[in-house]
Amino acid sequence: MALATRYTDMKFQPGAKLAPDANLSDVATERGIEFFLVAFVDLKGVLRTKMVPASAIKQIQRDGAGFAPAATHLDFGPHAADMIAKPDASTLLQVPFQPELAVVMGDCYIEGKEVLQSPRAVLRKQIAALQKRGYVFKTGVEAEFFLLAPQSKDKPLAVSDEGDSLSKPCYDAQSMMRRYALLTDIVCTLNKCGFGVYQTDHEDANGQFEINWQYQDCMTTADQHIFFKWAVKTLAERHGFVATFMPKPFSTFSGNGCHIHCSMWAGEKNVFEGANGDLSEIARHFLGGVLAKAPAYCVITNPVVNSYKRLNSSPTGSGCAWSPNRVSWSGNNRSHMVRIPEGDRFELRLADGAANPYLLQATMMAAGMWGMDTKADPQGCYFPSSVNMYEIPDGAPELKNIASLPRNLLDAIRELEADKDLAASLGEDFMVAFLKLQKLEWAEFMAHLSSFEVDRTVNC
Ligand code: ADP
Ligand code: MG
Ligand code: MG
Ligand code: MG
Ligand code: MG
């Protein structure tokens, strides 16, 4: 099928964002939508949904779609009253590869009260706090993923393309062409949904790809990010593959990062843009907060046991793991946790593919606003662009004031637990629920007997 004609049966016009209370029943008739996925995201980043036929959307838009909250990761017991997800029509995305279907994100309520630990609510709180200061946070994410062969229980993970075997596979045109049909399906899908994709590439690991689209206000980016993950995984399955955003699926390959680029706006003005191509003073304070609080929020941006195998990684077969080990920044230099590609934005390279799209944005804002309020100074973590951070050994004198990132999930949990500033900003409901779930994750990991320890210890 010629690309230009792909999905032309859709009445949907890309970029047409609805009002939050637009009548979804009328929209269904206008656009030929027969089913809605009314969705929310839980604390572990799982997209939860009820499929609602267009004939019932009027009532669901009024009353919300019902869920048993204990059946999701939001820290409720089975006795909790029903939770509803009330659709926010402004998030509606008609699905180009299934045009009678549309996805709409919902906001979570129990007995009329917003569920404050639900990720969209956590982000909305930060957006309101920044709005009070007169600013809008705009971001773009780079959600890397691997395409794997279909999985079965006893089979080790393997990339889907055996021919994708260069030792330095980044930008490899041949491996890209072997996945052309799937990748262009994904890009057409995103563009029909108004994402404004501007490039796709083969990334630094065999079987790994990245698709980049236009930055937006942080809530739109978060909604797009979760839709992106859903669309990539769904389309990959339809093409006979499995897409994974797992932080470090292969120990000898680079992992799946989820870099985030950010800027801050007052109307049409990007206030991160300083003079002479440097960051502005307010951007430096924001950055100072993002740096100072990184060990504390790492458990949010890097939320699983496996995350800590991407961080603190030794070099991979390609020559470099591209993930940070320490809290440092520089100019246009990818060996540091923060990079400044241009003087009107910065890139946080810490987060990974397991990061919750909403919590990722909220956390960065909480840390950045703390930095603005305290006039945090990033200078102590600065390195000249000529420095390759991977070449500086532990214990070197220039690392005297440089913090390390947590080495494992438990250390990361303890760092967040000890930080009262982020707790105050992110809110008690979120902190209690999130820390509880993270501690449970660690406890379950510790209860698991691995082949490593059996092999190493059985003959002791
Ligand atoms: P790289 O791989 O060099 O880090 P990419 O091109 O893969 O960069 O991704 C850059 C991301 O940054 C994109 O999502 C892009 O839209 C976003 N971006 C560009 N300019 C800004 C800006 N001023 N504010 C926020 N995000 C931005
Ligand atoms: Mg039932
Ligand atoms: Mg990129
Ligand atoms: Mg990348
Ligand atoms: Mg990047």
TrEMBL record:
Gene Ontology molecular functions: ATP binding; glutamine synthetase activity
Residues annotated as domain GS catalytic: 119-460
Listed Gene3D superfamilies: Glutamine synthetase, N-terminal domain, Glutamine synthetase/guanido kinase, catalytic domain
Annotated TM spans: none
Ligase in keyword set: yes
InterPro entries found in the cross-reference section: Gln_synt_N, Gln_synt_N_sf, Gln_synth/guanido_kin_cat_dom, Gln_synth_cat_dom, Glutamine_synthetase_typeIII
Superkingdom of this protein's organism: Eukaryota
SMART domains in the cross-refs: Gln-synt_C
Keywords for the protein's UniProt record, in alphabetical order: ATP-binding, Ligase, Nucleotide-binding
GO annotation, biological process: glutamine biosynthetic process
Keyword ATP-binding: yes
Domain named GS beta-grasp: residues: 31-113
Similarity remark: Belongs to the glutamine synthetase family.
NCBIfam families linked to this entry: gln_synth_III
Name of protein: GlnT protein
Organism: Symbiodinium natans
Record gene name: glnT
